[in-house]
């Protein structure tokens, strides 16, 4: 199961069902369209943090209110990720993906012409549906495109779209908004998503649906030893991140001498750090999971705190965004391996719970962060977020021991 900095995940476990008979060349072309889908949707999801200030000024609301657009997107993504398969059990998945991409197009157009914050929020609900549906089906589709021994590589291609969106898409949105206005940014996102929808229709084969995870399976997984505590802890870590990331534009604007160019560079450094962290942590997480379950959240917390203090110490900003990006780029790998360790026989159900947990964290992080920014200011809000992220990392590590201790007893009972 994958996630982005939007909050969704995929695992390398292949679902049942026949594979599409694709040649290697066409398979990788199809995966390239999935990469494009990740890039276009994640870029659209996280454009608000990059244009927060001009949107708030234009619509006559506070930055905290505009930040809630990330929360409402995550809300419908959460619901769609869990329920789409049940709602459309017989629909060809390629057709469903194209329809969802067109829904994202409509969302971006509505945001671009939004006369009020209410219209903007409604449009972002539609984007959330597209995001949740896309991520809930991306693994199913990717595993039909390539042989079983290349599923990991295929998901790496799909997931790379998320990182590239952070490295290039969101900073580019900041620059375009400065040159032509924030509405043009969303028109550009709409055009990109049209291209994505056409590419999916042309390059993807027909994909037969597979059964959904089911509520009962997820309920059993949630009751497994260590899982509930671990999920709450992960929500704390990811929520701490999104408190900071949702309001990163106004935070960076407070730096002495900061301008649009400086902010774009800092956001690009964050994304570049994420790219490095994704591969660096992924290379060692299987051998050092217990250490990374603490180290990665601590790095997120320390970086968020440093950025909160950067108004007084501007030199902290550049290393802070790089470390922050690297830590968040790696946290996805850490959580993925964690769920396979605590639920080795129920990875699909566990993946569904992690999707729900990430989306919940996005909702809480952006919403609570908005209240904090408006009430106590950015600096204090960032410090509280840092403490929450570190506490989550310290708590989740113990769930490995809990799950290991329970496994022999369960085996003996069986």
From TrEMBL:
It is found in: Cell membrane. Residues 26-404 form the Major facilitator superfamily (MFS) profile domain. InterPro entries: MFS, MFS_dom, MFS_Efflux_Transporters, MFS_trans_sf. Residues 1-20 are annotated as: Disordered. Pfam families: MFS_1. SUPFAM superfamilies: MFS general substrate transporter. The chain crosses the membrane at residues 27-44, 64-84, 96-119, 125-145, 157-178, 184-204, 225-248, 260-282, 289-310, 316-339, 351-373, 379-400. It is a multi-pass membrane protein. PROSITE patterns: MFS. Residues 1-14 have a biased composition (Low complexity). Keywords: Cell membrane, Membrane, Transmembrane, Transmembrane helix. This is MFS transporter.
């Amino acid at each position: 199961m994958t996630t982005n900095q939007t909050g969704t995940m995929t695992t390398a476990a292949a679902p049942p069902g026949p594979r599409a008979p694709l040649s290697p060349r066409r398979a990788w072309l199809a995966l390239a369209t999935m990469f494009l889908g990740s890039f276009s949707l994640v870029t659209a999801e996280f454009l608000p943090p990059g244009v927060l200030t001009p949107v708030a000024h234009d619509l006559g609301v506070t930055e905290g209110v505009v930040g809630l657009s990330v929360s409402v997107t995550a809300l419908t993504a959460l619901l769609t990720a869990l329920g789409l398969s049940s709602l459309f059990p017989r629909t060809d998945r390629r057709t469903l993906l194209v329809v969802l991409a067109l829904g994202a197009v409509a969302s971006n157009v509505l945001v671009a012409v939004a006369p009020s914050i209410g219209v903007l929020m409604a449009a972002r609900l539609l984007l959330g549906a597209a995001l949740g549906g896309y991520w809930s089906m991306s693994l199913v589709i990717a595993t039909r495109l390539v042989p079983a021994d290349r599923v990991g590589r295929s998901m790496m291609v799909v997931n790379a779209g998320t990182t590239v969106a952070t490295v290039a898409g969101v900073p580019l949105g900041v620059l375009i908004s400065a040159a032509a206005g924030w509405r043009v940014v969303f028109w550009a996102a709409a055009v990109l998503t049209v291209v994505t929808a056409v590419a999916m229709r042309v390059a993807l084969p027909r994909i037969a649906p597979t059964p959904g995870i089911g509520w009962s399976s997820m309920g059993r997984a949630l009751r497994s030893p260590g899982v509930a505590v671990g999920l709450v802890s992960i929500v704390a870590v990811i929520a701490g991140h999104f408190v900071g990331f949702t309001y990163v534009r106004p935070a960076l604007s407070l730096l002495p001498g900061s301008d649009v160019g400086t902010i774009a560079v800092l956001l690009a450094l964050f994304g570049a750090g994420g790219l490095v962290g994704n591969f660096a942590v992924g290379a060692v997480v299987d051998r050092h999971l217990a250490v990374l379950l603490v180290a990665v959240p601590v790095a997120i917390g320390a970086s968020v705190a440093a950025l909160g203090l950067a108004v007084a110490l501007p030199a902290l900003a550049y290393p802070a965004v790089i470390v922050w990006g690297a830590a968040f780029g790696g946290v996805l790998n850490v959580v993925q391996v964690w769920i396979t360790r605590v639920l080795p026989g129920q990875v699909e159900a566990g993946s569904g719970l992690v999707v729900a947990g990430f989306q919940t964290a996005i909702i809480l992080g952006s919403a609570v962060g908005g209240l904090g920014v408006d009430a106590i200011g950015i600096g204090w809000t960032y410090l509280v977020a840092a403490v929450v992220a570190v506490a989550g990392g310290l708590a989740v590590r113990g769930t490995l021991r809990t799950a290991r201790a329970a496994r022999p007893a369960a085996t003996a009972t069986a």
